[in-house]
Amino acid sequence: MSKQDRPLLLSDLMLLVVAVVWGTSYGVVKSALVFYPVLGLLALRFGITFVMLSPALRSLRHADARTLRGVFIAGVLLFGIFLSETFGVLLTRAANAAFLISLCVVLTPLVEWMLLKRRPGRIEWAAVALSLLGAWLLAGDGAIVLNPGDALILLAALLRALNVCVTKRVMRDSALPPLSVTAVQSGVVAFGSVAVALLFAPHQWQHVPSFVGHEPFWASVFYLVFACTLFAFFAQNYAIKRSSPTRVALLMGSEPAFGALFACLWLGEKISLTAWVGGGLIVVASMLATVRWRKAVTVGVPRASEAAR
Q1: The pTM is what?
Q2: 308 partner at 20 to 30 Å CA-CA among 146, 199, 221, 250?
Q3: Domain boundaries in the chain?
């Protein structure tokens, strides 16, 4: 493996860990919503994240207006994602949410093609098709009855595809560190949640549960902050800077498999054998996306630099 490939391998591994972490987040969020409403939970989760990352905002002093606008738009998209996703999780099963969000794997190549003018390769399209087949099986032979919560998760999937491509453009055209981008995104989600709660849903703005007697809630909040937000978004932004949006989406395509597994173990939701097969196909599609397919210079004889990989 060459030195040039090592950052890409590191980002790939980080994204696979993010897929595991985000897969568990649906069950954790559903548990936390028992204690606290959606907008309050979002404000708390991203408010803590924003405060912790606020020192990284110093890098914005050297950013131009176009970069700042792009980062802010990425933050607004992220706010839309979590607004749709969290209300969606409240209104549907965690396993349903984990399946439907995986459709961003199918949508991302189309959005990337439209916004970034990069046409995905044949291997990427094959991985997308395999991931879509796995997601269909994961839903139980496609026998999924859509409800308002499912529709919100579908909207979140589309917004995810847009967000990855917008963030890619920002990271490609600027030298902003990933932590600075994560800090801005967290601030937009936190303040956006507070604003929406105060203006449109005052009942969502409630007293924060005390530490005493609400240990499961705070354990969920800290897990969402440190694992699902701080680490996950840093890893995603780090990877987006070094890879294509389609590759990022495919590597995180195993998220629904882990989400279904966690929903089964944590919430007791029933998962069929067909669904497990579908989850396996999604994982295979993610692994397929990590392979760097190259053409050998001489037929049947790879170059030494490629053989070392």
Answers
A1: 0.76
A2: 250
A3: 6-288
